[in-house]
Write a structure and sequence with these properties.
Elements (H helix, E strand, L loop, with lengths): L1 E2 L6 H8 L5 E7 L3 E10 L5 E7 L3 E5 L12 E6 L11 H7 E2 L2 E2 L3 E5 L5 E6 L3 E4 L2 E4 H9 L4 E10 L5 E9 L5 H15 L8 E4 L13 H19 L1
Parallel strand pairs: 1-2, 14-15
Antiparallel strand pairs: 2-3, 3-4, 5-6, 6-9, 7-8, 9-10, 11-12, 13-14
Length: about 240
């Protein structure tokens, strides 16, 4: 079974492996073509085994200064090969960001594991800088969703009411649960597993957190909803 376009979760891979011997999750883009494949199979003990098969592209993980990082360290993904697109037609601004020094930057963050497998950890715009502390927004989302009583959650940054930006979380709660107890548990979970600097300053409740058609967090919609709620609250108090 060949799967592309996004990361393949282990849960989905296991379901597919009930009917296929091997499941291949491809990684690539229009600009760079097919770059590599993560072949997944089930070991005798029922666990997922992943093997990365490289094609004829060079895939590196770099830091923000452009230095290649060693295996095991997360950073920005960059790609180059002999047939890389030269740029974008009539879009010099996007081209300057995406094509640099012979490399194509697809906008992903990832790492090479110590056993030689390629892992995508998120998107570059999912990396929050909170008072100098950098944290992956996807990690925050999943940490919140691991708390009992939280069905779904999305973290995002919004302009502060006075200055700077605030880290806010939209949470979708299970029914018949005490909101404050759940929020307290969520704060404690992030505090103990990630750190005190990345605990959301506000928790907002919603019946359904905004996601795209393919299930990804729609952080722009979250920001819009939060600002509209703030404006409505301000107008009501006038």
């Amino acid at each position: 079974a060949l799967v592309g376009g996004d990361n393949l979760s282990d849960d989905l891979a296991i379901r597919l492996l009930m009917n296929f011997d091997t499941v291949v999750n491809t990684y690539g883009s229009t600009e760079a073509n097919l770059v590599l494949e993560n072949a997944k199979s089930l070991s005798p003990d029922g666990n997922i085994s992943t093997t990365t098969v490289r094609h004829d592209s060079e895939v590196q993980i770099a830091n923000e200064e452009g230095r290649e990082l060693p295996d095991g360290q997360e950073g920005v993904v960059r790609i180059r090969n002999g047939y890389l697109a030269p740029g974008y037609l009539n879009n010099s601004e996007a081209e300057a960001v995406t094509f640099r020094n012979g490399w194509f930057y697809p906008g992903d963050r990832g790492c090479w594991s110590l056993d030689g497998n390629f892992i995508v950890t998120g998107r570059v715009n999912d990396l929050f800088n909170i008072g100098g502390t950098k944290v992956n927004a996807v990690l925050l989302d999943y940490t919140l969703m691991s708390v009992d009583g939280i069905r779904d959650a999305i973290c995002f940054m919004v302009p502060g009411e006075n200055e700077g930006e605030q880290l806010v979380a939209f949470v979708e709660l299970e029914e018949k649960n005490d909101k404050q107890d759940i929020v307290d548990a969520a704060k404690l979970k992030i505090l103990s597993t990630i750190g005190p600097d990345v605990v959301p300053q506000k928790f907002l409740y919603t019946e359904k957190v905004p996601r795209t058609e393919n299930g990804k967090p729609n952080r722009l919609a979250c920001v819009k909803m939060a600002l509209e709620a703030r404006e409505a609250k301000y107008s009501k108090s006038m």
